[in-house]
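pinging the channel bc i need a second pair of eyes. not urgent but kinda urgent?? the chain im working w is below, pasted from the shared doc
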Amino acid sequence: MDLLQIKFWEADDYRPSTKGHERRCGWGGSSCPSPAEFTVTDRAGAHNGACAVHVVDYIRDRLRHGR
């Protein structure tokens, strides 16, 4: 699998009652008020919601750390 897979956010990517399913950006922590616009899937298969601003930070971090 690639280092990351990025696609537009879909509720089906997340388990109910999770931050991602509620369309909240998981990268900015609880302080990010923006809705998740993208689903980022890492090599381990974890889905993470990211807003338009934080998706760039997410990519940068994963490329630096190779996860």
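so The mean pLDDT is 84. and The radius of gyration is 11 Å. — does that match what u expected or am i reading it wrong
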